[in-house]
Amino acid sequence: MNRGRSGHRPYGRREVLALASGGLGTAVTAARAAPGEWPSQPVRYINLFPPGGATDVMSRIYCAKMSEIAEQQFVVENRAGAAGTVGQAAIAKAPPDGYTVGLGSIASLAIAPSLYPSLPYDPARDFTYVSGI
After folding, report:
1. Using one digit for the tens of pLDDT, what is the confidence trace for 43-101?
2. Contacts with 20 (C-beta within 8 Å, 6 or more apart), sequence order
3. Is the C or the N end of the chain the one with fewer CB within 10 Å?
4. Which CATH number belongs to the domain containing residue 73 in this structure?
């Protein structure tokens, strides 16, 4: 068994996905306790990259688990283009009702603002961090 510097075995793919979904899963489970709470309709999850890639596969596994936990459908929508800024703009322009969530990336949230003077979103103002993946 391969062990890292700390003496612990590295996490496998499934363990990483389970750890990543744990934080948001707990919040959604708590929100389901009261009737009429979020989510009461399907949730749109915007992936910033094209179908078939690593982030698409990860997003679909994540949304399948979230659908199971929340007892509501999480639908993956791929909005690729311009290093993630197309999808990031779609997330920013969605109504702030909690029914559109999405993947953030360093390219669209940290690098793009320093390269492009006029983005259709403000990374500091238009987004709320929910959970890391």
Report:
1. 999 999 999 999 999 999 999 999 999 999 999 999 999 999 999 999 999 998 889 99
2. 62, 131, 132, 133
3. N
4. 3.40.190.150
- List, as own/partner pairs, every contact residues 123-128 make where C-beta atoms lie below 8 angstroms and the sequence separation is at least 24, other chains included: 123/88, 126/91, 126/92, 127/91, 127/92
Measured between alpha carbons, how far is 18 from 25 in angstroms, rounded to an integer? 10
Whether the full predicted model's pTM is greater than 0.85, yes or no, is no
Please state, in angstroms and rounded to a whole number, the distance separating the CA atoms of residues 110 and 119.
12
- Domain around 87: 13-115
Separation between Cα atoms, residue 22 and residue 131, nearest integer Å: 9
Q: What is the pLDDT of residues 1-55, one digit of tens each?
A: 444 444 445 444 444 444 444 444 333 333 444 556 889 999 999 999 999 999 9
Does residue 28 belong to any structural domain of this protein?
yes
Measured from the Cβ of residue 122, the count of other Cβ atoms closer than 10 Å reads: 10
